């Protein structure tokens, strides 16, 4: 399987959006891919959370990476996270 690389943009948002590189990689490797804007791809994976985020308790965190599949690697352009 191709290596997964997070872009500088995605890396810069890890703390602000509350995701880890391991969660992103797991989502890409285990979840179905869907078409996204600009010819990119995306997928979604929900994780048990059970913690506080921005002063509110959430039971679930969903990670949605947006990425481009290239011939030799997968490049993660950005990652969205949802807490519920």
Description of the molecule:
The chain is α+β, with helices and mostly antiparallel strands and 84 residues long. The chain is 23% helix and 48% strand. It has three helices and six strands. Strands 1, 2, 3, 4, 5 and 6 form a six-stranded mixed β-sheet that branches. The longest helix is centred in the first third of the chain and has 10 residues, at 21-30. The chain is elongated. It starts with a strand and ends with a strand.
Summarize the structure.
By secondary structure, the chain is α+β, with helices and mostly antiparallel strands. Helix content is 23%, strand content 48%.
How many helices? 3
Mean pLDDT: 97
Helical percentage = 10-25%
The structural class is alpha+beta
Largest sheet, strands/sense/barrel: 6 strands, mixed
**Strand segment tally:** 6
Question: Helices and strands in order, then pairings?
Answer:
Layout: E1 4-6, H1 8-12, H2 14-17, H3 21-30, E2 34-35, E3 41-42, E4 45-53, E5 56-69, E6 74-83
Parallel strand pairs: 1-6
Antiparallel strand pairs: 2-3, 3-5, 4-5, 5-6
Q: Which properties best describe this structure?
A:
84 residues, alpha+beta, six-stranded mixed sheet, 3 helices, 48% strand, elongated
